[in-house]
Amino acid sequence: MQTDQAGLDVLASQCGPSGAYLQISDRELFDAFAPEVSGPVEARAAAVTGEFNRAWECWGEYWTTRPSPAYYVNADSYASEIHEHLPKLAEILVSQADRLWLHDFGHATYKPKREGRTFQWVDCVADSAYCGFFYMWFLRELGRAYLLTGDAKYPGIFRELICSWFDALPDVAINASFHGTEASSETGLAIIWNAGLGSSLRCVFMLDCYFLMRDSMELTSELHSKILKIFLGHSRYLFDTRMQEYNPSNFQSSITCWIISAAIMLPELKEAEQWLRIGVDRLCERIERNFDKDGAQIEQCPQYHLAGIRDIIRPLMLLQRNSKVEMLGGDMWERLERIFNYPIRIAHPAGSPALFNSGVYGTEWKTYLPLGTSLFDSPLQSWAANRFIGDEFIPVAKGISEFILFMDGDWVQSLSDARKTEPEPPTFLNELLEDSGLAVLRSGWDEDASSMVFDFNREPMGGHAYPGRLSFEIFANQVPLVIHPGSTISYSMPEYRNWCHQTISHNTVMVNNHSQGKPHFAQLEAWHTSDRMAFVSASTSTYKESDGVLHQRSILAIRGEYYFILDWLRGGSDATPIAWLLHSPQDIGARPDGSIASSDGKPGLLVVPDSLTLQNSQLQLGEGYSAVPVSYTAEYQPLDAWRDDVPYLSLDSQIEETAGGQTYGILIAPFASAAPEIEVTTDLGPDDNRLHSYRTIIRTKEHIDTVFINALDGRTSCEFQRASRADERLWSESTL
Fold first, then answer.
1. Alpha-helix residue ranges (DSSP H) falling in 176-291
2. CA nearest to 543, candidates 576, 500, 582
3. What is the dihedral of CA 32, 34, 35, 38, to 10 degrees?
4. pLDDT tens column, 497-534
5. What domains can you pick out in the chain, each with its CATH number?
6. pTM of the model
């Protein structure tokens, strides 16, 4: 490829205290080797005399036979273990790798342009997915496909891709443009660095292939030269510009993962020692500061919690297998166990993770359970692995999950060990995770149990926070009944900003036809749990500045029967419209008595407004967008995790200034095959002020329940009483 001087000048300008980032000569590369490392002696000797082709041949021979350091995947046993224990996974890994070999594919909304078996790397578009394409996620299965098949086509295409990308760097740097990142769109450097995320992810995938394919003759001197220059330059850039101090961004999480990986797997480089020191320092800080005390990642998004675990587990496994794990020190293992346990604590009994803010209802969280079992010798992790991982399990998120890379012989052994034990289910059912701002209300841990996750988050860190405070979701009888929007297949899809990032897509109350303001913050008002019931209340002022409205939501859960939700909205004016929202993937519709229900004959939900809500509200039904729970099938496609026809209901009302505000009282009852008969009556006398105290009667086929919720003097409480239809008092409970 002929490169003009402008492109070379751009590359040459990319340097820092550690040296050049993009324009590194063979001489400079060999000068970066540590003389005290005895391994590549012949390669260094040839480089001294300027015989660089010979030098790279010698490096290739050394790389192929180098006995240490150890990688987190055992290349010698991987194929036999996967073929024996995970044959379905073997098929998928090879099939995914063949997509790169056989035909075009898309990265989210971006369709890469082919040029033979590689790509036209320069494409002046403003699609954010184009930047994501440069993460080179498409490399991830190549190394394992090679181990499973021995087919030279996989290292062959790897060589062509890496060498062609390296050769295209001047053109990428001078021509490709992407708007919206820190680097100038005129130079295209945003494509190369992307604030460190692209450079770190790209290197992780490259190193995986480079190591697992190291015995292939397709790994030529040209590849050795170019890929080591990429590793050295990218690591220098990240060390100089992204690692000198702690940053809570998930970008630094991926960067830390790569810096430790480079330091351990490339000890021949002089700079590896300082990379390792700073990488471990940042890793420990991340474990300590990037997760709440209850284990939740501070972005408050399950998808990024899992990404955080991913970027911890890779370096952790490398540290372990190379006898360096003691570098972590302190109470890191206790903190790590809380981080690993968090997905279990927010899981629905049906096996789906709770979803709030940006994310997806996938199954990849289960991949970590066998790893957690072995890391912590944890009965909880062991129980969850046994409970949630079935035969031929394949993790999916928006697509086939990257987490398949962690499934190897050790993973199979840990899962097998978990299945030999019979640990008790978790003791927690109703649970408050106050640090991360969630209340989880479960009727049990069996598959048909019902569960609600209530989101009263503090302001989450990062760009994935949604204006959905006081929202909730419900699963029961193994199906989703009320769901959150999650995120689209690509952040560049307009629905991501225009729908998912709007309050209308959440199960909360929208004020004045616009989304909640920042900060997206709520605070806990009350919490109570017992064997029979749970009560939680929280409030938010996200509409105070814009509309003068405060919103408090209280939820009473009667175990295994129903959820009663009371919303108080006060302030504003009598001209302020409000809308109570609920989104369900079930086929919900209005019934003559004013309730809303899904069809009988299958699991569903019944929504019953109380008499005051029916009197003061108008029902609207519509369709919107949402992530939906998915699991792997042979026909699985990424868009299966996203629907554009999810039903939702809106109970429209307005603030009543004369009464000081407005209330909604709504009962939600999951059912297995037929909607139960339930009536909810609220009858306030002329002197009652329903903004401070609220009394309602819930009549079912067997019982008459009285619910009294009080919010006076800054305290919120609930009193519950149940009687039989024969007026016999059965039980009562108070949160006071």
1. 189-193, 197-212, 221-242, 250-265, 272-289
2. 576
3. -130
4. 999 999 999 999 999 999 999 988 899 999 999 999 99
5. 72-226 (no CATH), 431-677 (2.70.98.70)
6. 0.92
